[in-house]
Design goal:
Length: 210
């Protein structure tokens, strides 16, 4: 009986070692380098929260907490499929004047985008540094854009120029009339906006990195 147990242990030991080795090999699977590739997403939703609230004639320093949900993404990286992305960060500007919603506004800060992909990426995220956000109107809605030359990217999908040609376009789900009423006294100001488009918007939201 003792000999049988020893024999069984001798047979089982290599199997256990093989399973352990396989686990280590899986954990150390090579990552895909997409730092010099680009990504484009045709669906951009999310929100921007303002602290303090945007008001007419505001003069306090402004902090804008940005959250993005990305979909419809494609990349030029061979064999890589991007199924989703989520971004979060804070942008800082000089004042909480509601007029900043129209025209270019200098900002500092970053938005970090984490990607869901079919392969493991080298850094798993893109850090987007924004320098200028341009506000405008599109039909009944407010719009926000980051144009080429006003952002840079570190990490995944920085393209061949460190993200210098990065662009973003997003429209609000609130109408201009609603936002105007929130910014006009005695209302307490615009505390947040949501981003998204549907059949009533003139232009679809989009993001391009790289």
């Amino acid at each position: 009986m003792k000999k049988l147990l020893l024999a069984a242990a001798a047979v089982a030991m290599p199997v256990g070692m093989i399973a352990s080795t396989a686990g280590i090999a899986g954990a150390g699977a090579p990552k895909t380098d997409v730092t010099h590739n680009t990504v484009t997403c045709t669906t951009v939703t999310g929100s921007a929260k303002f602290a303090p609230a945007l008001i007419t004639g505001g003069s306090q320093p402004e902090n804008t907490n940005v959250k993005l949900v990305l979909g419809g993404c494609t990349t030029d990286a061979a064999g890589v499929t991007v199924s989703a992305g989520s971004g979060a960060g804070v942008l800082h500007s000089a004042s909480n004047n509601v007029a900043s919603l129209l025209g270019p506004t200098a900002v500092t800060g970053q938005v970090v985008i984490k990607w869901t992909t079919n392969k493991k990426l080298t850094t798993k995220s893109s850090t987007v540094t924004v320098t200028v956000v341009t506000g405008g109107t599109s039909g009944s809605y407010a719009s926000f854009a980051v144009t080429s030359g006003n952002a840079s990217v570190a990490g995944d999908f920085a393209g061949s120029d460190a993200g210098a040609t990065t662009t973003l376009y997003a429209e609000t789900t609130q109408t201009l009339a609603t936002l105007g009423a929130e910014a006009t006294p005695p209302a307490k100001g615009i505390k947040s906006i949501t981003l998204g488009t549907d059949g009533t918007h003139l232009v679809s939201n989009s993001l391009h990195l790289g």
